[in-house]
Write a structure and sequence with these properties.
homodimer, alpha+beta, eight-stranded mixed sheet, 12 helices, elongated
Chain lengths: 431, 431
């Protein structure tokens, strides 16, 4: 008999299910087990006297042991969980669990030590499902639009975007570094005529930060496309991509997210276009509305306080969780952003729920201009290999990157440690 | 006017196209350009006298410069390429290319030095499209079967499967290593109750090998699923997955593969089930058919010579490009493969076109047995963190991994250097 997922079990059928023993009440005459699989939970009830073999097996069970049970499922209005229970005639012990070293409310570092047990919680399984749907539907959207997928190397010969915060690797008799982002290589793909590309992959940051949003390794979702010439086109690609993915997430997991994380985490599917505002105008609004005055020396960039205030502002003024902020100061932006005739970078940040989730831009594809902009930032030598990509013909292009972990955090109101399959930080390399 | 992909251009329409100048004949009265984008090529013909502005722009063009042209497309039976040409009335130079440092027939290392130019070749663009379809359809197959996607860390605290051939990373004041495979963590996902998972991601091998199939970094496609108890179930998952993906590749790229790589590279969509044979029986067949005698000390594993002969044997005996080989000697297999009552590992290799593309197996999920098998191989301490995954309840499970690069090589008859976006080897970290 094939295994049935618990979510598909119906009263009146005979089924075989497999899962973890989430709850266990082993009384004198009766035993009540709650079996949990990735899809749901089912009560399994065993009358012990007429089933001595099953009773003997149940006596060996511990919490989180794994079993396969088979038998008829009957309706029972007294069972809270789905109004039904299985009355098994066979039970197989797949694995006996030692006494569990953590509980649901153990402190975060203990839960990290035993992450594989922590991940069994329904909330965490939903989180992984949400990530799957999010990333899967973003890829789907892009494949429908003629994007191809690339796999850029994570081992690189020279420190990438900036010289700092990069991990060094012992590479035979020499050194290599771990890529901090696929930025340079996704632009190389444009020079290669691949036209439109995306990549999902790890990025590495050697930052000794201990905040609830920093990790030394996380999953980036990057894309880049050719023959776009205005920042507006890049923003449009991003807002339609996110609206598409959010709709899939809401349809598939909306109810579960509210049930397990609260009504205030309800997924709001955004409408397109997202609101856009210039940085200077944003600061004027924040001052007028909330009395927030940006320090003069910070006017060219978005301060963390202003970033947080964007949540309130975007909702009040536009009824939106999202806000595109444009017209940053060139001094505050990467050298590879193209600048318009005013000298303003043709790029943006996207803020969601008061947190920056993307930097996007039209890239400078003209070798001479790019070289000059790199030199202005004191990056001449470090990026010389990258500058070569633009010498032999390169389409104009733009793109952006998203952090899969950060998006998940914001969806569910969790910290970075809670959303990574296995968190990596300066003090955390295990399990 | 929006850009049209060249493949969608029809005679009788007015279109705007963008692409690289693949060919350029600038005569006295006429100029003939071949413009190439990701989808195809189009001849662009300019009569110079009546179009002095266009003529002046054409005079600046070089091979592989990037242009956008707009104008009517007319049928012309004398044009070999699609029987049509564009007669542009506007031409915009997006990027001027310096003299190209490589040609199509430059030797491989020069082409690697300028990989972004090399990738413009139609064959290479097809290769990336093929990889996109292959990986995309494998994911699609798994998502339809309730698999979730995980992103396991590539930075790890201890050397993984074996102590050798692992890259060391300077990790703040300590050391980390780069994951050689997601094997241990995808099994952790089983202990986490995630039931069925897949991952696409980089794997790192510190091997100083200079063959045409070794790289220090490549892209792995891994999956693992719970509650399978026979090797047959794992093989069935793999053969149906591959048949599904091959069908998509054949439908989408079959004709282009034959056109650009030759009839002998035609994609053959395999029928399920793939043939299966025990290792000992295979050796008996190879001896009887081809006089191949395996050295006694190699009988427990598949030799490289035998692997190659499998191509001929599988086709002759079964009319199949694929062959599952089972019943290896436990001495030759990883400690984490479950063994049957005979002590034979419940695993297999899958051979395609005479090359091993997968090792798959039912894993040993019983802590005591697994610990003993690890110790037998002298791995007690190295894998102690991994052994913990099996102490607190773990479903039985199995799985396999595929190398995306290797599959691509075999599809197209290329070397590893030719199929990676950017090859990484002991002497190659750039660009």
């Amino acid at each position: 008999m094939n295994r049935t997922y618990i979510a598909d079990v119906k009263a009146g059928e005979r089924v075989r299910i497999s899962g973890f023993v989430e709850n266990l009440r082993n009384k004198k005459k009766m035993a009540f087990l709650v079996i949990k699989d990735i899809s749901g939970k089912l009560q399994v009830t065993i009358e012990k006297e007429p089933n001595p073999e099953l009773a003997a097996l149940v006596d060996r069970l511990t919490l989180d042991s794994v079993v396969t049970v088979e038998g008829p499922v009957v309706a029972n209005e007294y069972v809270k969980m789905g109004g039904m229970e299985m009355l098994p005639d066979t039970l197989k012990i797949e694995s006996i669990a030692d006494a569990l070293p953590i509980k649901d409310d153990s402190e975060i570092d203990s839960r990290m030590d035993y992450r594989w047990i922590d991940l069994r919680r329904e909330q965490n399984q939903l989180m992984i499902k949400l990530q799957t749907t999010l990333v899967g539907s973003m890829r789907e959207f892009l494949l429908q639009r003629d994007f191809v997928e690339i796999h850029t190397p994570k081992l690189i010969g020279a420190a990438s975007e900036s010289g700092s915060e990069v991990f060094e690797v012992k590479y035979f008799d020499g050194k290599a570094y771990l890529a901090q982002s696929p930025q340079f290589y996704k632009q190389m793909a444009m020079a290669s005529g691949l036209d439109r590309i995306f990549e999902t992959g790890p990025v590495f940051r050697a930052e000794k930060s201990y905040t609830n949003k920093h990790a030394t390794e996380f999953t980036g979702f990057d894309l880049e496309f050719s023959y776009c010439t205005s920042c507006e086109e890049v923003m449009h690609m991003e807002e339609t991509l996110l609206a598409y993915a959010f709709e899939k997430v809401a349809a598939k997991h909306g109810e579960d997210i509210k049930r397990l994380f609260g009504e205030d985490k309800a997924v709001i599917v955004p409408t397109v276009p997202f609101p856009r505002i210039r940085l200077a105008d944003l600061y004027a609004e924040l001052e007028a509305r909330y009395g927030y005055t940006v320090p003069d020396e910070c006017k060219g960039d978005l301060t963390t306080d202003a970033e947080h205030l964007c949540a309130k502002f975007a909702m009040e003024k536009y009824g939106s969780e999202f806000l595109f902020v444009t017209d940053y100061d060139a001094k505050e932006r990467a050298f590879y952003h193209m600048r318009d005739e005013r000298g303003v970078p043709m790029g943006y940040d996207l803020i969601w729920r008061g947190c920056e989730i993307t930097t996007g831009a039209i890239r400078e594809h003209r070798y001479d201009v790019l070289k000059k902009q790199a030199e202005e930032k004191g990056l001449g030598n470090d990026v010389s290999f990258y500058l070569q990509f633009f010498r032999y013909g390169c389409p104009p292009h733009g793109g952006f990157g998203l952090g899969v972990d950060r998006l998940t955090m914001l969806f569910l109101g969790l910290s970075i440690k809670e959303v990574q399959f296995l968190f990596r930080g300066p003090n955390r390399l295990t399990p």
